[in-house]
Each structure stands twice: as C-alpha cells, then as structure tokens.
Amino acid sequence: MPGEDVRTLRVMTYNLRGLRQEVDALVDVVRTARPDVLAVQEPPRRLRGRWQLRRFAARTGMRVAVAGGGARTTALLVAPHRSVHDAHALRLPWRPGLTRRGAATARVDGVRVVVVHLGLRADERARHVALVSGLLAARRDADAPVLVAGDLNERPGGPSWATLLSAAGGLQDAATTAGADHPTYPADAPRVRIDVVLVDARMTVRGARVPDDAPVGVASDHRPLVVEVALPAA
C-alpha cells in the first residue's frame, strides 16, 4: 500500500510510452515506488486505451481518476485511500501535423494536481503552458495548494519551466529543493531532466529521487521522478 502517513503525499510522474514497452517492468517500477498519485504521460490510447490503463492501474494497486477524452496525452491515477474531487480533463489547442494534447487535473486530498505533457515545439509549449498557468490562476483556492507534474520536453531553465514556476503565486522545483536534480531521459543512459514535480510553498518537500533499479532502464524511454511532500495542516 502507498505511504502510511496520510499527511505525506508521494507523487510519481512517469511517461508510460503508451504501455508499448515492457509492461511488467512498468508495473514493477510503480509498485516498488508505491505512489499515492501517479501523474501519467503517454497513456495508452485508441479503442483499447482506457481498458489497458484501467488494467495497469489495477495491477499497480491504484485507480484511474482522469483518462481519455480531453486528457489525451495525460492521465491521473490515485491510490484507493486518497480522496479525489473535481477530476476532469483539459483539452489543449491543436494544429494539424502535431500531436493532440491535453492536461489532467483533480483535487487529491485537497491538493490541486495538474498533469502536463508538453510538445516538442517551443511555440506549442508556450501556448500550452500559458493556458495551464491560466487554469491554475482561475482555480486557485486559499485552501488548495498546487502541484504540477509531468514531462516538459524541455531542459531546466527553459521558458516553459519559468512560466510554470511563476504560476499560482509561485511554485518550486521539488527535485532541486530536495537535492535530487538527476537526469530522467533517456532511461537507459539519462543525460537531461525533462520530468518535473512543481509544488507551492504551502507544501514542504520531504524528499525526491529518480529510481535507477534495473526495470527502470527497460520499462520506458523516461525514468520516473518520485517526490514526497508534506500536506498543509488541516
């Protein structure tokens, strides 16, 4: 079962590459990490996609909170003992020739979680992060700390990072805060970190790590990032 301390939220962001690689290895990586929240990029899609994701969630001891529809290149899985409210997808603007993208969001134990998977083109990333930042501003509640997780397809210090870090009154890069700014891509010989968990100041970062055990190198083309944050006092 994921973390026993209900005041600590363990968040894992992971590009599943459509479950096209070693699914058993993916299951092993997630089960070993025991996340409370799994921010998914590249979930399986098409006709069998939702069924495949539900089956994957069941194998990892989680449930699907957001998938399909406007979420497109993202999904959100949550541990059974965590509360989920206001779960929905955000469809992002699309231009012919590019991948249709979206974002997934929900309040998990009072935390506004947003999952993103940005594109390969800088102009598209700029449009999408502006919309996500606007969503965070519009939905910001005094009692709802914000957490953004995902694959930015951009190196630290890039414009997408800057825009998201300034969103919702200011966010912090959990991996850097915890001294775990390790590369996540490509999985077999990682050179850059393009995967992030960003949290606002109302949550304390207790730890972060990029798993490097054997299944991680073959399960996907990304390594996951796992972060633990302390929830604000109720």
From TrEMBL:
UniProt-listed Pfam families: Exo_endo_phos
Every Endonuclease/exonuclease/phosphatase domain range: 12-222
GO terms under cellular component: membrane
InterPro entries in alphabetical order: Endo/exonu/phosph_ase_sf, Endo/exonuclease/phosphatase, GPI-anchor_lipid_remodeler
Keywords: Endonuclease, Hydrolase, Nuclease
GO MF annotations, alphabetized: endonuclease activity
Keyword Membrane: no
Tree of life domain: Bacteria
GO biological process: GPI anchor biosynthetic process
PANTHER family: CALCOFLUOR WHITE HYPERSENSITIVE PROTEIN PRECURSOR (PTHR14859), ENDONUCLEASE_EXONUCLEASE_PHOSPHATASE DOMAIN-CONTAINING PROTEIN (PTHR14859:SF15)
UniProt protein name: Endonuclease
Annotated organism of origin: Cellulomonas shaoxiangyii
